[in-house]
Automatic annotation (TrEMBL), chain A:
It comes from the Bacteria. It is a multi-pass membrane protein. Belongs to the binding-protein-dependent transport system permease family. Keywords: Cell membrane, Membrane, Sugar transport, Transmembrane, Transmembrane helix, Transport. The chain crosses the membrane at residues 29-56, 94-114, 126-147, 167-184, 227-248, 279-299. It comes from Kribbella aluminosa. This is Multiple sugar transport system permease protein. Pfam families: BPD_transp_1.
From TrEMBL, chain B:
Residues 66-259 form the ABC transmembrane type-1 domain. It is a multi-pass membrane protein. This is Multiple sugar transport system permease protein. It comes from Kribbella aluminosa. The keyword Membrane applies. Belongs to the binding-protein-dependent transport system permease family. CDD domains: TM_PBP2.
Length: 312, 274
């Protein structure tokens, strides 16, 4: 705003009688009109509800009796005493870490493969990307079908003499399953972003490294990774935030089970609020989710300074 | 040569978990129930039948649900494009009082996933009597948190346009909205394409919002409808579910195969690259 004050008067405005509708005033009006729908939307559908989440978290809501009472810190007390919360946070963490590590490694691996000057890479790129456009629930249903005890995955493993577990009904395997289903659904998106970044790495750098006698692995570590680090950071942020929002896969594949082994935070808050009608406690859990997203985003933003090699 | 064979081999192996489920979904939907769990499983149906597809429409108003998903996704996409291109343009090219502060407010949308605010959003729409209507599924994505990413992408694109373009437009007597509509928007096709794809897929895939807000089958969207094909004991009717799943995936998949260049490159070129 000070910037506007410091700006010299425009030379093209008539000096004699300054009209009210100067360019600057007109721009201010146009600017506000243009951002108005977005601003109104954010206030109505993000900021007000966020405030309400805080408000609800100190209330208890009895839907059947139609009461809405102030309960102070009761919901937070309940949070501290919740035996389920530990396992839920653990499942959420396991899912996120597993997914992010596998997703970024596989995406980078596929992008490097596709970045070779070979015929037919466009076909492969299309195939790897295709699950992205398949309806999420449809993709989850077919995997649910394949992962059954007598389903396709175990039939495939049987060919190699391996007796697969009942994937969706045993703890560790269920978590692996939901991670894998999500991994193949969306890894194509990150792969495409990596591919775009790889194509931006100047060939001369590889040439120079080769002359210096760097091995393929050294070229990858010393040239490729630093140059595409902004993309790595971006995909990491998008993938982590996305992994915290996972819901449909859990709801369709495991309903959070067996036990609570795949009950991630969003699924737990959905259960509390919309199945058990504990809206106040659900709001408290929403705040926990918000804080986790907030902290992770800030940490990653800070990491950018230390970690991202070049940024333009 | 050796290296080349190795790379092709790796690519082929990697393809399996991406392509096989889609193949399995389509072929199993054509199998009669007796064949579904045949061992060893067959890659092609021995005696293909359309029974499952008949079931899809007989058990639920699937056509209606399809239209619901389609029109909601289209309205959300067009609406998001309007909202985000205007806001993105203003943040990138218009210098106005308060622009910085508004931009920060809008960016908070990136920090607050819809899942965090789903409880108050439900209560708000309930208070307005809009639960079990399509309004929440249209208004929240179009104006709320999901549109912020779209605004950000549009802004990143508009920033890259050279200022000479707008100066030339000004000489021709265009105002702000004229510059936006006549000069800048037509140039923004790659960004518009990417935002449109993102937004359409996001709306098409929504699951939490529909199951929270909708309760009558006539109003269901596809993802929600897919899980409703269960037998009397609550067990899934696999071939029917997979037939419905195939029907849900087919149109988008076909468009994607026809226009995969625009899809992939559009998404890669939106300022999202580092």
């Amino acid at each position: 705003m000070t910037l506007l004050l410091e700006k010299p008067a425009r030379s093209d405005s008539p000096a004699a009688r300054a009209p009210y509708w100067t360019m600057r005033r007109r721009d201010t009006l146009a600017g506000w009109l243009m951002v108005a729908p977005q601003l109104a939307g954010i206030v109505t559908f993000v900021l007000v509800p966020l405030g309400l989440v805080v408000w609800y978290s100190v209330h208890e809501w009895n839907v059947l009796a139609g009461t809405f009472e102030f309960v102070g810190g009761d919901n937070y007390q309940a949070l501290a005493n919740d035996q389920q919360l530990g396992p839920v946070l653990r499942a959420t963490g396991l899912f996120s870490v597993g997914l992010v590590v596998l997703n970024l490694s596989l995406a980078l691996f596929l992008a490097v493969l596709l970045n070779q000057k070979l015929r037919g890479t466009v076909v492969f790129r299309t195939l790897f990307f295709s699950p992205v456009v398949v309806t999420l629930v449809a993709w989850t249903i077919v995997w649910g079908f394949l992962l059954q005890d007598n389903g396709g995955v175990n039939a495939f493993l049987h060919v190699f003499g391996i007796n697969g577990p009942n994937w969706l009904r045993s703890g560790g395997a269920a978590m692996v399953s939901v991670i894998v289903v999500q991994l193949f659904k969306n890894v194509g998106l990150n792969m495409v972003l990596f591919l775009a970044a790889l194509q931006g790495v100047p060939a001369e750098l590889y040439e120079a490294a080769r002359i210096d006698g760097a091995s393929a692995w050294a070229r990858f570590r010393r040239v490729t990774v630093p140059l595409i680090s902004p993309t790595i950071l971006l995909t990491m942020i998008l993938t982590i935030v996305g992994s915290l929002q996972v819901f449909a896969q859990i709801a369709v594949l495991t309903q959070g089970g067996p036990g609570t082994s795949t009950t991630v935070l969003v699924y737990y808050l959905y259960q509390q609020a919309f199945q058990f009608h504990h809206f106040g406690y659900g709001a408290t859990l929403s705040l926990v989710l918000f804080l986790i997203v907030l902290v992770l985003t800030v940490v990653q933003w800070q990491m950018r300074k230390r970690w991202v090699f070049h940024e333009n | 040569m050796r290296l080349r064979l190795l790379i092709y081999g790796l690519l082929l192996v990697c393809c399996v978990p991406f392509v096989f489920p889609i193949w399995w979904m389509a072929t199993t939907s054509l199998k009669p129930v007796s064949e579904i769990f045949a061992f060893p499983p067959s890659l092609l149906p021995a005696s293909p039948t359309l029974d499952a597809y008949r079931q899809v429409f007989a058990l639920q108003p699937f056509g209606r649900q399809y239209v619901n998903s389609l029109y909601i996704a289209l309205v959300v996409t067009i609406g998001t494009l309007a909202v985000s291109s205007l806001a993105g343009y203003a943040f990138a090219r218009v210098r106005f009082r308060g622009s910085g502060a508004v931009f920060l407010i809008v960016l908070t949308g990136l920090l607050v996933p819809n899942e965090v605010t789903i409880i108050p959003l439900y209560k708000m729409f309930d208070a307005f009597g809009l639960v079990d209507t399509h309004w929440p599924l249209i208004l929240i994505p179009m104006l709320g948190a999901p549109s912020v990413l779209a605004t950000f992408i549009m802004r990143q694109f508009f920033i890259t346009l050279p200022s000479e373009l707008e100066e030339a437009g000004r000489v021709d007597g265009l105002g702000r909205f004229g510059l936006f509509w006549r000069v800048c928007l037509p140039l923004a096709r790659p960004a518009i394409g990417a935002v449109a794809i993102f937004t359409f897929l996001h709306s098409w895939n929504l699951y939490l919002e529909p199951i929270v807000f909708l309760s009558s089958k006539q109003k269901f969207t596809i993802p929600q409808a897919l899980t409703q094909y269960v037998d009397a004991y609550g067990g899934p009717m696999w071939n029917t579910q997979l037939a419905a799943a195939t029907l849900s995936a087919l149109p988008v998949l076909i468009i994607f195969i026809l226009a995969q260049r625009q899809f992939v490159e559009g998404l890669a070129q939106t300022g999202l690259k580092g």
